[in-house]
Design a protein that fits this description.
With about 160 residues, the protein is an all-alpha fold. The chain contains eight helices and no strands.
């Protein structure tokens, strides 16, 4: 088991499917900005599975991935010794997939979504800050990024109104 201050190893990642997914299929092992790498992983992986779902089917799958993520993150956070270790990026991935589902399918819109999501994930406006500060478990970790996704979608909707 890695120490709290250390990044998990490749061995830790591969030790369990729970850790593998919580660490974003390895994207959370990035030596710097793992949350950004997790979000990039979400952006790159989204077009690989999105065509195989209806929008409603994908929304159901994302709901299941979100609920599963609460457990994945809780288990992996306990194993690492930090409920919100930077290498845990499933909380970036699933909410950003939701953002991509609801974002126009063009590079500029998706790039804007990426930048906004990272901004809100880093700055943690309320109530994200509350979850980040006071709810130290899988639910809190997932919830603060869902809030970031909500702010991102609100800004994108406002941009769409302005530029349409």
């Amino acid at each position: 088991m890695p120490e709290k201050s250390k990044r998990p190893s490749l061995k830790f990642l591969l030790a369990s499917p729970v850790h593998f997914f919580a660490l974003g299929c390895g994207s959370g092992l990035a030596p710097w900005a793992p949350g950004t790498f997790g979000t990039l992983f979400a952006w790159i992986s989204f077009p690989l599975f999105q065509p195989h779902f209806t929008d409603f089917g994908l929304l159901l799958a994302l709901t299941a991935a979100y609920l599963l993520g609460i457990w994945l993150i809780d288990v992996t956070g306990k194993a690492i010794g930090d409920p919100d270790h930077g290498s845990i990026v499933w909380d970036e991935i699933v909410p950003f997939w939701l953002v991509l589902l609801l974002t126009p399918n063009t590079f500029l819109w998706q790039l804007s979504a990426f930048a906004l999501f990272r901004y809100f994930d880093i700055t943690k406006p309320q109530p994200a800050r509350y979850f980040d500060t006071h709810v130290k478990n899988g639910f809190g970790v997932m919830a603060d990024d869902l809030v970031a996704a909500g702010y991102t979608l609100l800004c994108l909707a406002l941009l769409k109104l302005v530029f349409s």
